[in-house]
Amino acid sequence: MDEVKLLENNSDSQETVQYIVVKIGNEQYGINIKYIDNIVRNQRITRVPKSQKYFKGVINLRGEVMPVMSIRLKLDLDDDEYTDKTRIIIIKIESATIGVIVDQVKEVVTLTEADIEKVQHNPTSENTTGFISAIGKSKGELISLLDIVSLIEEG
Amino acid sequence: MDVSQYLEIFIDESNEHLQSLNDQIMILEKEPENEDTINEIFRAAHSLKGMAGTMGYKRMQTLTHDMENVFSEVRNGNMKVNSDLVDVLFQCLDALEKYVSNIQQTQDEGTEDNEPIIKALNAFISGEKKQEAAKAEEKKEEPAQAASDSAASTIELADFEKNAVNEAIKKNMHAYQIKVSVDENCILKAARAFLVFKNLEGHGDIVKSVPSVQDIEDEKFDFDFTIVIVTNESYADISGIIKNVSEIKDADGKEFTELFPEEQPAKEEEVKEEKKAEEHAAKPAAQAQVPATASSKKAPAAGSKGKAVGRTVRVDIEKLDALMNLVSELIIAKNGLVSVSSEENTDGSIGQKFNEQIEYLETVTTNLHESVMKVRMMPIESVVSKFPRMIRDLSKKLDKKMELYMSGEDTELDRTVIDEIGDPLMHLLRNSADHGLESAEIRKERGKDEVGSIFLDAYQDGNNVVIEVRDDGNGIDVAKVRDKAISKGTITAEQAEVMSDKEIIDLLFRPSFSTSEKVTEVSGRGVGLDVVKSKIEALGGDVEVKTSYGEGSTFTIRLPLTLAIIQALMVKLGDEKYAISLASIQTIEDIPVTDIKYVHAKEVINLRGNVIPLVRLRNLLDVPGQPEESESITVVIVSKGDKMAGLVVDSLIGQMEIVIKSLGKYISINKMISGATILGDGSVALIIDANTLV
């Protein structure tokens, strides 16, 4: 019985998760790599009338029509300004595939549990914190880890 | 014998037979003397029995066997078809359908033995009323329940079992019925019972056991079971052997001294003897023997299934979907070529040859598309054929006389739509039957025929299939709906004042709305119409209702014919391109701005005598930018049924065949946008659903 416990402890400390670090506005955000299917350059986005304001429209991805969301607008920040560093990250969650616009894709980091601090959800604070599930630390910098599933699913 | 590979075929063919049985029994009810129908039913039951036997589904086989018996009596003229018999037959069909659906889901037919139905069938054969089931002779191989017969009364024996006892008595052997009681504290009852059987094996033959040997082995008995044993030994010896097994409390019984009366036409005897051979093994009917007898029956059954049906092919839907995708990609590739060819016009002659090739490609892909679409289409007959039966059942349940008249059953719909359309149609029919049609007295007062009529008509209209459900009943009482809505708080009294009749009726489609006072099994819960509307809209169609109080109502369902590839007109609004399905378009007009008139503060034009409302698409779709000032506007006239509207666009691009792509799940789209398509240059254009704008 003791041996089993030891094993569990060992595997815990080695559990790591990889995140893609992106820059949106002035902050850095992390998206769990397991949800990411693809990253493409910014391309012509076709506007869809009467849709939610944080949906910029749809794009053509190799024959499939895919909706594209602006994380900035979803988090109630300023609107996107497209540069040649702007990228669209294709996120695949079990129910759907959609794209999200980011200003810049920086790197992939590997975080262990120790590097991650869960965030207290304060009901009185702004909307934005609802989508951030934790804060990660890497190389002396703070990365807000996005709860991408709730970001996409919640209206 | 592993029959799992045949499972798909079995299910398909069983469903076909069951459907045929359904239709034929309905006909039989109206024409009890129709020999063709009777033969057809007999053949179908026979085939089903054979198939069930081959696959090892004993309960199904038993039930169909009994049905077959009943029908052979009918065929020989020994029995007449009456309404009670038809009811029992329908119950049999329901039971069989349940078996098949169990098989479809779990590969096992389930444990429902349907003993009451079998008893009823047998009662018909012995010519008695259903209530006197006590005298019913059991032809089943195994009894269904754990019987708790007291030792004194004789347990019921099937004919072959009685035969076995008779034979034994004739040969001067003994036949005993013994009730074996197991100790209440006994833990492993099944093991004890098994020991009893084992020990008795060398001393005699166990003709029958109640509950069946299988059930005993599964411990499906309380503390006793009864056996009938044929042996040379004395009663004392046999009961001694039984009591010798530990934890057996008692063995009590009696001897059969009299012969059972011989009965049964010779035909059944052969079947019984085969079964007798199985039973004597005192084990559950050996699978090996059943397929042998069943397969020999299957051969004649297959031969007799000579019903003339159009040459059909069963195609796996996944293959079709793959084909569809290929064709879609082909069309996108073709579009790409088209846009390239229209750009490269520097060298005239090469351009020409290019165009010829393109035209050829276009012909080929269009033909390919059409043939594939045809394979996917199925006549709605498969869905609506269940409805006459349902109306008949409803008619009995609601105690109202009604008839269903259908037309256009050969109208074809895409397969995926067919699957989904059954439920909504059923709801509408039930609505008409329950709410629409009045009781016989009211109908008489109004001078209507006592038998209510419900009509189901299907036909093609342009790019759509229209299905109408019409009844000549009460119609929708708009005042009642209004009052109910106000009392429920759905709308306020002030709102009710300004709402048109049509808007009031549309309230019916809201969830949880019903004007009936009580909830019955059939309806009243307010769930039906809302579900109908959402299901149909999910299919890309819409539903409307027209009603006339005292005369009846008509529900009209409109569904798109083709789902994925359509001919469309490309139009420009500002900088954006949009597609409008060509099928909805009547004409395209250039209207001088001065011709626009105003009715009720809405823009209309007078086109060749028709007043057509104008729809400013730029405004509706929030297109950025300002339209150019010009003296005339381009108007696309679209129609839906007999209503028309004029869509104002900036300019026309041209006609194109486009592939409809869905917009994905999370982006909320207006009803006006029915999808998107990818143009030759890779950009996305949205598709406008003209039907919603009319």
Kindly provide the radius of gyration of chain B, computed on alpha-carbon positions and rounded to a whole number of angstroms: 35 Å
Contiguous helical run count of chain A: 3
What does the overall shape of chain A look like? globular
Percentage of residues in DSSP E strands of chain B: 15-25%
* Helix/strand/pairing category of chain B: alpha+beta
**Oligomeric state of shown chains:** heterodimer
Coarse structural class of chain A = mainly beta
As for the CATH topology of chain A, it is: OB fold (Dihydrolipoamide Acetyltransferase, E2P)
The biggest beta sheet of chain B reads: 6 strands, mixed
Largest interface between protein chains, with number of residues from each side: A-B, 25 and 27 residues
| Secondary-structure element order of chain A, N to C | HEEEEEHEEEEEEH
Shape, principal axes of CA atoms of chain B: elongated
Number of strand elements of chain B: 22
Low-confidence stretches of chain B: 128-152, 262-311
CATH superfamily of chain A: CheA-289, Domain 4
Mean pLDDT of chain A: 82
CATH class of the largest domain in chain B: Alpha Beta
> Residue share in helices of chain B?
40-55%
How would you sum up the major sheet of chain A? 6 strands, mixed
**Number of structural units classed as domains of chain A:** 1
> What's the total helix number of chain B?
22
